[in-house]
Amino acid sequence: MRVLYDYQIFIEQKFGGISRYFFELMKGLQGYDDIIISDFNIYLSGSDYAKELEQCKLNIWREFTGRKDLARFINKTIFKKVLQSEKYDIYHPTYYNWPLVSHCKNKPLVITIHDMIDEKFHTNIPSLQNLIEQRKRIVNRADKIIAVSESTRNDIIEAYGIKADKISVVYHGNSLNTISSEQAELSIKQRSYILFIGNRKGIHKNFTNLVKATVSILKKENLKLVCGGGGDFTEKEKKIFYELGLENSIS
User: Fold this and answer.
1) pLDDT tens-digit map of 79-103
2) Which of 92, 125, 166, 193 could form a disulfide with 224 if both were Cys (CB 3.0 to 4.6 A apart)?
3) Which residues is 145 bridged to in the sheet?
4) Is the backbone of residue 46 left (phi > 0), alpha (psi -120 to 50) or beta?
């Protein structure tokens, strides 16, 4: 069986949850061939992650790693031809670009929906309306939908009126080393903190509002807010911490 993935999320994210999800899928499906992607992401280029995929002998394209707009144009032009060639069995897009996905005419289409936050809470944000509309079109075109939780599955049904049997819930796994429950419990007891994971830019994770909402808790309970995965704090973030008296409570 030939499973086709595209370049989309690997252009948009240097690293992140969705690109890690597809990285793990590609490793797990190493028995399948002609998994075609393009390179703009830490998991696919110049890292130990990339070496893991190379060992799987997957067909990874690395023609271009330049500026995003030009990279999108080049990859889209190439990938349209790949889709139209129909030399694959299933197409699993990595994101929600309908003009690209629409070129998949006669092959089964599988799409993963990670959450429905935009449809539930961001319908009044003009910059997100195009994404919401394109995702709706892809969901309706898909032959099968993967939801990452029962909650997301119910949100899809509510938002789009999709039949329940078209959606399968597949929970996220990981390839991390196993930690026993005893070890995890001991680690938590030894440290008191709130953990924040992910990119902190813009409205994506609502980080600034989280900080403002937890000021009293952090001070009263002598907790720390520990952030991982989003890079160094910006000067703007440091200024907010200082103004709230949290410069020693966030790391």
Assistant:
1) 898 898 888 899 999 999 999 999 9
2) 193
3) 111, 167
4) left
In 3D space, the residue among 75, 44, 47, 46 whose CA is nearest the CA of residue 60 turns out to be 44
Question: What Rg value do the Cα atoms of the chain yield, rounded?
Answer: 20
Tokens 């075109």 sit on residue: 141
What is d(CA 117, CA 128) in angstroms, rounded to the nearest whole number? 11
Tokens describing residue 140: 């309706």
Cα–Cα dist 91/110, whole Å: 6
Reported residue count of the chain is 251
CB-count exposure of residue 10 (10 Å: 0-12, 13-18, 19+): buried
Q: What is the pTM of this model?
A: 0.78
Q: Enter the DSSP assignment of 87.
A: -
3-state secondary structure of 128: helix
Query: 156: which strand partners?
Result: none
Task: List alpha helices for 2-91, DSSP H.
Answer: 8-12, 17-28, 48-55, 68-85
Buried b (16+ CB within 10 A) or exposed e, 95-120: bbbbebbeebeeeebebbbeebeebe
DSSP class of residue 249 equals: T
Q: Report pLDDT digits (tens) over 15-65.
A: 788 988 998 888 887 655 556 666 677 777 767 777 777 777 777 776 666
Tokens of 118: 């935009």
Q: Which two tokens stand for residue 144?
A: 């099968």
Which run of H or E residues covers position 130?
helix 129-141
